[in-house]
Amino acid sequence: NTDLMHKVAASGFEKRLQKRRVAAIERTGLQAGGAVLDVGAGLGFYLERLVSAFAPERAVGVETSAQAAAEAAQRAGVEIVAQPFEEAQLAAGTFDLVCMNHILEHLVEPGDFVEKAAGLLRPGGLLQVEVPRMDGWARRLFGRWYWPHLPPQHLQLFTREGLEGLLESRGFEVQAAHTSGYPATASASLVLAAQHIFGSKSRYARNWLVRGPATLLGIGCLPITLAFDLLVAPILDRFGAGDILTLVGRLK
């Protein structure tokens, strides 16, 4: 859905994520020039930011949506491969940076994508990945009701240790990391929990003797979670407890 992609790309949330990814890559000392690859390039906005930040000689995006790929291909200075990554015919050992953002959590075998990325990189090349995080503050607080679980779309949830281990097992050394947070995580998780425990998706869906008072209680708690999202969550995110994890690994 390219309309949804446009809305996400225009959001301050997505722009902040992209800015922080680039900052993490910059901390590794990546030099201008070379070649970059964005896996799951969407409409090409992040690839465009990579071009602006690192002035690569070649910028390639892989995107499975034909409609999104066609729009991304109109951006100056980029090449788009409209194929699944596992089928894309890309020359081995030719890239200096490969990016995979919110891809690995959707895969049955995420290690296969990491391994293919390693094969595409030159020695010393960088892999930047970003995923929802299982050991962030919201997942610890809300457990099964942590809203970014998003089954069945998300097949994997990673701890920082687990993601680092995955990269290291495919020949990478982690060079930079940071965490970010989703907007309104506590509030969204509260609503999800309420729906399934006593609300419209629970066994009490037609029992207003239970559902009515419980719904009022849930609504009463929303100002608390909203205040938490606005005041406390950004501090937790900044100090490494956020629920979105970005790592940059260097191929040994």
How does this model look, in words?
The chain has 252 residues and is α/β, with parallel strands linked by helices. The protein contains 9 helices and 7 strands. It has helices at 2-10, 12-26, 45-54, 66-72, 110-120, 137-142, 160-169, 185-197, 208-241; strands at 35-39, 58-62, 79-81, 95-101, 121-132, 172-180, 244-251. It has a 7-stranded mixed β-sheet with strand order 3-2-1-4-5-7-6, sandwiched between helices. Helix 8 (185-197) runs antiparallel to helix 9 (208-241). The radius of gyration is 20 Å and the shape is elongated. 37% of the residues are buried. The model has no long low-confidence stretch (mean pLDDT 94).
Helix-strand blueprint:
Blueprint: H1 2-10, H2 12-26, E1 35-39, H3 45-54, E2 58-62, H4 66-72, E3 79-81, E4 95-101, H5 110-120, E5 121-132, H6 137-142, H7 160-169, E6 172-180, H8 185-197, H9 208-241, E7 244-251
Parallel strand pairs: 1-2, 1-4, 2-3, 4-5
Antiparallel strand pairs: 5-7, 6-7
Helix pairs in contact: 8-9
Primary descriptors:
9 helices, alpha/beta, seven-stranded mixed sheet, 7 strands, 252 residues, single chain, 46% helix
Would you kindly provide a brief summary of this structure?
With 252 residues, the protein is of the alpha/beta class. It is built from 9 helices and 7 strands, in the order H-H-E-H-E-H-E-E-H-E-H-H-E-H-H-E.
The residue fraction in helices comes out at 40-55%
The fraction of residues assigned to DSSP E strands is: 15-25%
Mean pLDDT, rounded to whole units?
94
Lateral arrangement of strands in the main beta sheet: 3-2-1-4-5-7-6
Largest sheet: 7 strands, mixed
- Quick one: how many beta strands? 7
The Rg value, from CA coordinates, equals 20 Å
Task: Write down the overall geometry.
Answer: elongated
